[in-house]
Structures are given as C-alpha cells and as structure tokens.
Specification:
The complex is a heterodimer. By secondary structure, chain A is mostly beta strands. Chain A is built from no helices and eleven strands. Chain B is built from no helices and eleven strands. In chain B, the strands form two sheets. In chain B, strands 2, 4, 5, 6, 9, 10 and 11 form a seven-stranded mixed beta sheet that branches. Chain B has a four-stranded antiparallel beta sheet with strand order 1-3-8-7, with no helix packed on it. The termini of chain B are far apart. The chains are: A mainly beta, B mainly beta.
C-alpha cells in the first residue's frame, strides 16, 4: 500500500533556530517527492521537488534531502522566521497508468515563537 | 507563472441547498484538474480527477451524484456540492496540472471554506 508518513506531527521552535522535518514513504513506482508549505486556510505552495536521482535541493532557507534507498526525505529549515509557521506536507508522486498520482503525508505543523 | 484561483474563498449555506465552487487556471491551460477535501488537522484527500471534455474520475467512497464536477473548458472546472449537509463542511482545494520541465506539476488553488449550517 502506498503510504507517506511524516514526523513529528507538530513542532514548536524559537525564532532563529533551525529544525528538520522527516518523511518516510513506501510508494511504488516512485516518480518524485515534493515538499509543500500550507498556511492555515490556504492552498499548498510547492517548496521543492526531487526526482529519484537527486539527493538534495535548496530553496532559500529550505533544504530538502532524499535517500531513495532508504525511502526517506527530510526538510531542513534554517534560521526560522515567524512566517515559517505553517503545515509542511511531504507528497510522493507514483506513476500510475501514465499519469502521476500524488500520495500526501499528514503534514507537520510547525509553530515558530518569538 | 502558474496561478490557480478559486471562487468563492468561503461560503456558508443552509442544509439541503447546493453550492458551486469554481477553479480557474489563470495563466495556463489545464487539461486535468483535481479536487481535494481537507478536514481540520488532516492532509488533503483526493476526491476526483477532472478531465476537460470528459467525465470526472471519482476516488473510492466519493459520491459522484453528490459532488458534481464539470470541466467544460481548459481553464475552468466546477465542483457542485448538492443537497449539502453539515458533514460536508470542509476545506475544498483544487489543483491544475501543467507541464513543467519534463513532468506534470500540480498547482494548487487557495481553497474554499464551506460551512453548512
């Protein structure tokens, strides 16, 4: 069964600190892995997308890693800001019948406190 | 760019009435659009895949007669919640598919908050 599991479920950090969010997946056949940021009451916004051959990808203060052998990914946020408070969703794309089907993780709710 | 809009952003309706939600791709054409539902503190759940000019494909457990989807043009898909009940209250998000590089990328709308009283 295709599944995406994220940890922790929620996280509180102080402004300026770093944090790392985890994503484990069992999805086949794997196409790509994406991290999205979703502010409360808004739609998800893409942060990074990685294919099987990519190990790391950065987008400003966000750095995602991918280990296709262990089927694990992480999202590292550097020098957190109050505006980073949001849900971060790991989404794995499975190639199904010629098109990509997205498998969503439950998300990690991050709260950045001053 | 790849901007997707939804209208309305929020709606309150009475039980038993129908509500229509629009999803538009503003600066690109989308053959395929998707409709998701998200309950509080849960992730997005795919409801249906909407293909322009053909019938939508519904996920298991989603009533196609209750959630009517129309994708009449390459920039517009609509979701109509018929005979809405309080348990239909949720956050509805659409996405539109666009070829980006060598793969199709889904671009999400801002969502529509539906409250059924």
């Amino acid at each position: 069964k295709n599944q995406v599991e994220q940890s922790p479920q929620s996280l509180i950090i102080l402004e300026g600190k770093n944090c790392t969010l985890q994503c484990n997946y069992t999805v086949s056949p794997f196409s790509n892995l994406r991290w999205y940021k979703q502010d409360t009451g808004r739609g998800p916004v893409s942060l990074t997308i990685m294919t099987f051959s990519e190990n790391t990808k950065s987008n400003g203060r966000y750095t995602a890693t991918l280990d296709a052998d262990t089927k694990q990914s992480s999202l590292h946020i550097t020098a957190s800001q109050l505006s980073d408070s949001a849900s971060y969703i790991c989404v794995v794309s499975a190639n199904s019948g010629g098109y990509n089907k997205l498998i969503f993780g439950a998300g990690t709710r991050l709260a950045v406190h001053p | 760019g790849a901007v997707v809009s939804q209208h309305p952003s929020w709606v309150i309706c009475k039980s038993g009435t129908s509500v229509k939600i629009e999803c538009r791709s503003l600066d690109f054409q989308a053959t395929t659009m998707f409709w998701y539902r998200q309950f509080p503190k849960q992730s997005l759940m795919l409801m249906a895949t909407s293909n322009e000019g053909s019938k939508a494909t519904y996920e298991q457990g989603v009533e196609k007669d209750k959630f009517l989807i129309n994708h009449a043009s390459l920039t517009l898909s609509t979701l109509t919640v018929t005979s809405a009940h309080p348990e239909d209250s949720s956050f509805y998000i659409c996405s539109a598919s666009k070829m980006t590089g060598a793969a199709y990328e889904q671009y999400f709308g801002p969502g529509t908050r539906l409250t059924v009283t």
